[in-house]
TrEMBL record:
<feature type="compositionally biased region" description="Low complexity">
    <location>
        <begin position="152"/>
        <end position="162"/>
    </location>
</feature>
<dbReference type="GO" id="GO:0045109">
    <property type="term" value="P:intermediate filament organization"/>
</dbReference>
<protein>
    <submittedName>
        <fullName>AINX protein</fullName>
    </submittedName>
</protein>
<dbReference type="Pfam" id="PF00038">
    <property type="entry name" value="Filament"/>
</dbReference>
<keyword id="KW-0403">Intermediate filament</keyword>
<feature type="region of interest" description="Disordered">
    <location>
        <begin position="152"/>
        <end position="175"/>
    </location>
</feature>
<dbReference type="InterPro" id="IPR018039">
    <property type="entry name" value="IF_conserved"/>
</dbReference>
<dbReference type="GO" id="GO:0005882">
    <property type="term" value="C:intermediate filament"/>
</dbReference>
<dbReference type="GO" id="GO:0099184">
    <property type="term" value="F:structural constituent of postsynaptic intermediate filament cytoskeleton"/>
</dbReference>
<feature type="compositionally biased region" description="Polar residues">
    <location>
        <begin position="163"/>
        <end position="175"/>
    </location>
</feature>
<dbReference type="GO" id="GO:0099160">
    <property type="term" value="C:postsynaptic intermediate filament cytoskeleton"/>
</dbReference>
<comment type="similarity">
    <text>Belongs to the intermediate filament family.</text>
</comment>
<dbReference type="GO" id="GO:0005737">
    <property type="term" value="C:cytoplasm"/>
</dbReference>
<dbReference type="InterPro" id="IPR050405">
    <property type="entry name" value="Intermediate_filament"/>
</dbReference>
<keyword id="KW-0175">Coiled coil</keyword>
<feature type="coiled-coil region">
    <location>
        <begin position="65"/>
        <end position="124"/>
    </location>
</feature>
<feature type="domain" description="IF rod">
    <location>
        <begin position="1"/>
        <end position="146"/>
    </location>
</feature>
Length: 175
């Protein structure tokens, strides 16, 4: 019985040591796990903070992208309006150019017609000048004959000198 008590005491001491060792091992293991869990929790918090920051940055980028998209659409509309206005102005200017070219062509034709009329009138004037010069020579020749012939006839000198009037002919232009 004493040997059994001694064996029992040894087993109980061994069990107590084993129990103490298991508890120490369990506490050390728990402490390491708690430490690891604390580090993991800190890593999770850091990851969550980083994820939150990334979400905020993503939201900011999305808002910025929407803003830029709106600005882009606005600029596209402005560009289209400017192109339409430019095309309308260009079409108006082309119409004006065409109208001015027509006016220029009409003015040139009118100037050519006036030039022809002027040439015709100049030709008529030259013909009339030649005719007037011829009549003058004839009249001067008759006056000299008249003066020579009247020197013997004093009574004819008392007559007033003849006055000549020119009746212009009307010429019509062919154009």
């Amino acid at each position: 019985a004493a040997a059994l008590r001694e064996l029992r005491a040894q087993y109980e001491a061994l069990a107590a040591r084993n129990l103490q060792a298991a508890e120490d091992w369990y506490r050390a293991r728990c402490a390491r796990l708690h430490e690891r869990a604390a580090r993991s929790q800190e890593a999770v918090r850091a990851s969550r903070r980083e994820a939150g920051e990334c979400r905020r940055q993503l939201q900011a980028r999305l808002v910025e992208m929407e803003s830029l998209r709106g600005a882009h659409q606005s600029l596209e509309r402005q560009l289209q309006e400017l192109e339409e206005r430019h095309n309308a102005e260009a079409a108006g200017l082309q119409d004006t150019i065409g109208q001015l070219e027509d006016d220029l062509r009409n003015t040139k034709n009118e100037m050519a017609r006036h030039l022809r009329e002027y040439q015709d009138l100049l030709n008529v004037k030259m013909a009339l000048d030649i005719e007037i010069a011829a009549y003058r020579k004839l009249l001067e020749g008759e006056e000299t004959l008249f003066n020579m012939g009247s020197s013997g006839l004093p009574s004819l000198n008392s007559l007033p000198s003849p006055t000549y009037s020119f009746q212009p002919r009307s010429f019509s232009s062919s154009t």
